[in-house]
Amino acid sequence: MPAPGRKRHDVMSLLEVAAAVFTERGYDGTSMEDLSRASGLSKSSLYHHVSSKEELLRLALERALEPLFAVTREPGATTGRAIDRLEHVVVREVEVLAERLPYVTLLLRVHGNTATGRWALRRRRDFDAVVADLVAAAVREGDVRPDLDAALVTRLLFGMVNSLVEWYRPGRGALDAAALGRDVVRLAFDGLRAAPAR
Amino acid sequence: MPAPGRKRHDVMSLLEVAAAVFTERGYDGTSMEDLSRASGLSKSSLYHHVSSKEELLRLALERALEPLFAVTREPGATTGRAIDRLEHVVVREVEVLAERLPYVTLLLRVHGNTATGRWALRRRRDFDAVVADLVAAAVREGDVRPDLDAALVTRLLFGMVNSLVEWYRPGRGALDAAALGRDVVRLAFDGLRAAPAR
DNA sequence: CCACCTCGACCGAACGGTCGGTCCATATCC
DNA sequence: GGATATGGACCGACCGTTCGGTCGAGGTGG
To answer: How far is Cα A71 from Cα A156, in angstroms, rounded to an integer?
Structure first.
């Protein structure tokens, strides 16, 4: 077992800093000098840990994409009625989003500007397709209203979930991710209208 | 009436080009040379029409903010039951979003990187506050479910509506904005669950 | 125990290139 | 001919990246 390392900067801690700064100022709006200042390393030292600014982006995006795809492989997402699988994916996605907030935020804001950006957009489309299939199956099983287009429902549902990154900040006092996920499901599945008093 | 002018470029047409390119590559990721190429003007000629890249951003953001605030002043948004006012604002916002798509997209992606960006974020918060008041009033009037926090409902509702900019493209064959607005309201107000057969 | 060596972490300086923006001469309209 | 519109040449600042070299902890031989 290795003794407690004395290294003060590893790739992971650098990645945390980078994701935070990228999120705040945008990838294109962040210079390597910004990252240097935020990490306490000189600009040139950054290149001792990563080979380029774009690699930093790629690593950060992987930290978001990996757990998102993992959700789609969980038992709760692959067995049972489609609407229950859909609910599971939504709740778990909210949890991943909370746990990996800076990385998921970055993922949702990426453009097709660089090769890495285009790769991330492709992966996002793959993920969306999985969910779209789930919604379509739930419509066929009679659990999701058939009067709205399934693709539209998918997009709006995930627009709602993804918008969490714009304001959700975990921490003491904040709604925890599991409770938040339940609230999101309640609103999305049952609507905001008060139950009619009848 | 002016004769058919030979001027090929005015500020508005330049603004259209700029908004499109900004949306595609991001504001920071767009160089003035990119705008030069896209508009057919030389880089220096751009400065004959606008004083800076940032002014171009400001003008574009105004084209989004002005009609959005106008919606909140319409009679349908100021009289009647709160839930009906809320529905009116949602439907009209979808229409504005469709009509001013590139500008609204830009508004929703702005960071606090520049002074103009921070100004836009402030205006967005003002707009959100108006809607938050509407939701809170509808809760008090008993038309919106009281078991979810009104601020949460506001944020999720507008997260859903705003996500339209990520995929909606008007044009032949596409759902028109009014019909889309109605569908958004139906999903948000009544939920995606099929009505229980009883 | 200590002189020697290795090696990963780190930095200051500078590279070629691109950035937003300026200057001034020219072309085109009324 | 004067206001309007345009473009080529150019500027200083800053960009991402590279390079030569320093530093100090840990291993090794005597």
So the answer is: 20
DSSP A23-53: HHH-STT--HHHHHHHHTS-HHHHHHH-S-H
What's the confidence (pLDDT) of residue B10?
82
Residues A59/A15, Cβ–Cβ less than 8 Å? yes
Residue B152 to chain A, least CA–CA distance (Å): 9
In the structure encoding, which two tokens stand for residue A195, read together? Answer: 């139950």
* Interatomic CA distance for residues B63 and B69, integer angstroms: 11
A41 touches strand C (CB under 7 A): yes
Tokens of B196: 């229980």
Using alpha carbons, select from B14, B180, B25, B26 the residue that is nearest to residue B97: B180
Non-local (6+) Cβ contacts of A70 within 8 A are none
The model's confidence at residue A4, banded by pLDDT at 50, 70 and 90, is very low
Residues of B whose CB is below 8 A from A164: 159
Task: Pick the closest to residue A143 from B31, B115, B194, B98 (CA basis).
Answer: B194
Q: Which pLDDT belongs to residue B3?
A: 30
The predicted structure's pLDDT at residue B47: 94
Q: Is the confidence at residue B104, as pLDDT, over 90? A: yes
Those residues of chain B whose CB sits closer than 8 Å to some CB in chain A are 24-26, 28-29, 83, 109, 111-113, 142-149, 152-153, 155-164, 166-167, 175, 183-184, 186-195
State which residue has its Cα closest to the C1' atom of C20: B32
- Which protein residue lies nearest to nucleotide D19, measured between its Cα and the C1' atom? A44
* Cα B62 to Cα B50: distance, rounded to the nearest angstrom: 15
Name the closest nucleotide to B51, judged by C1' and CA. Answer: C21
Among candidates A83, A156, A191 on the partner chain, residue whose Cβ is nearest the Cβ of B190:
A191
CA distance B107 to B117: 9
- Cα–Cα distance between A96 and A83 in angstroms, integer? 20
pLDDT digits (tens, 9 = 90+) for A109-154: 999 999 999 999 999 999 999 999 999 999 999 999 999 999 999 9
CA distances from B115 to B110, B123, B128, B174 (A): 11, 13, 20, 37
Neighboring chain A residues of B83 at a CB cutoff of 8 Å = 193
Nearest-angstrom CA–CA distance, A124 and B76: 38
